[in-house]
Amino acid sequence: MKVALYTSVLSLVLTGASIVKGATVPTGFMDTLVANGLTNPTAMAFAPDGRLFVCEQGGGLRVIKNGALLSTPFLTVTVDSAGERGLLGIAFDPNFVSNQLVYVYYTVPTPAHNRVSRFTANGDVAVAGSEVVLMELPNLSTATNHNAGAIHFGADGDLYIATGDNANGNNAQSFSTVLGKMLRITSTGAIPTDNPFFNQTTGDNRSIWALGLRNPFTFAFQPGTGRMFINNVGQSTWEEINDGIAGANYGWPLCEGPCTPPNPDFTDPIFFYANTGVDCAITGGSFYNPDTVQFPSDFVGDYFFADFCGGWIKKLDLTNGVTVSDFATGISNPVDLKVSSDGLLYYLARGTGSVGRISFTGGGGGGDTIPPTVAITNPADGAIVARRSTVTITATASDNVGVTRVEFLVNGALQCTDTTAPYSCNWIVPNSRTTHQLQARAFDQAGNSATANIQVTAR
Q1: Domain extents for the chain?
Q2: Any alpha helices (H) in 239-373, and if so which ranges?
Q3: Which of 102, 104, 150, 335 could form a disulfide with 162 if both were Cys (CB 3.0 to 4.6 A apart)?
Q4: Alpha carbon 153 to chain centroid distance?
Q5: Yes or no: is domain 373-458 CATH 2.60.40.10?
Q6: 352 in Cβ contact with 331 (< 8 Å)
Q7: What is the pTM for the complete model shown?
Q8: Is 62 within 8 Å of 56 (Cβ atoms)?
């Protein structure tokens, strides 16, 4: 049975550490280890300042900063981590730069149920006692699988939440539970009145945005268009990529893969592939629409997806119909994919507790590996700045091809971005006597970057 296979593979992964091996990638691409030492990772997300946050199933939210895994977790929540439960989802508020809000999805132990909460960041750790619970999902049965957990903000500024059916297919078709659904709430936990089933449901069930899902472990929004692809893990026949549409019903448990015979009440997947036992669970997805294109131009708009058991990444091209091609292999149980703003593809390998990064080094649309040079020219390193004053941070940057932008960060938090020389950013100094780290991060057209760091003291 599909569930037994998937759970047994997870159990094998949990038993010990593995040697980190690089992925096999196409000619012209390069695979690099970003960080390892993670314990049973489940999901990841980039903060606007470039830090990578990684969920560990046991409840730790870890931070990878400047290429290193920080020893202190951003937060640790108490979880039930049996089977597919635990800390499973991470998202950043669209206004994170100003409000520092971080959202997570995790399984509460007693009684066992999933919860969506937000925390306030203070640098690389959460503010103690800052948890605000936005949604308590229904109590779970003794089944520990089909727990879903992915959360992302859409272009509308609302939070979308993927829930599994808790191993009860009837949940997916019922309007009396939020299980087996895609949900939509606001950043404060309210339910938008324009949700498609708002007027025919009550309570939290008004958050239902789409239904008929078995275990949508991951989903992704396409930057620029807002299009959603939902990766729905099948039972024993098909793994699905579904077009996320408000009010859609994807048919589970009545259909797995496309409905046969066709049923107009259900939305068939745009792509599906067979569960063979070698390939067993679609567990990652990300659109290639970065701020800076580093891969060849024909990758733009493609959708990367991965399989947990197959250990591969493939890409889906919708330019002319639906075309799927191989991309990377040899990854130990990939569970999540992310495209960074500078155009690199990151993958989260549960089997090795690591994050890998795939870049393009060949010719024909990429190949520049020379980073820019950057320096902060004001204020001076070690300078004293007045509390509550406005300080203009200035930087110089140059590159063999061309600088695309310079990001300014204070204590790891992005303050502003300048795309035109001379590069500058106005920073309002907090009213506290402390030392601050200022950074200027320059990017070139190929996505290479370099960072300059100084420290100033506020008095």
Answers
A1: 2-360, 373-458
A2: none
A3: 150
A4: 10
A5: yes
A6: no
A7: 0.78
A8: yes
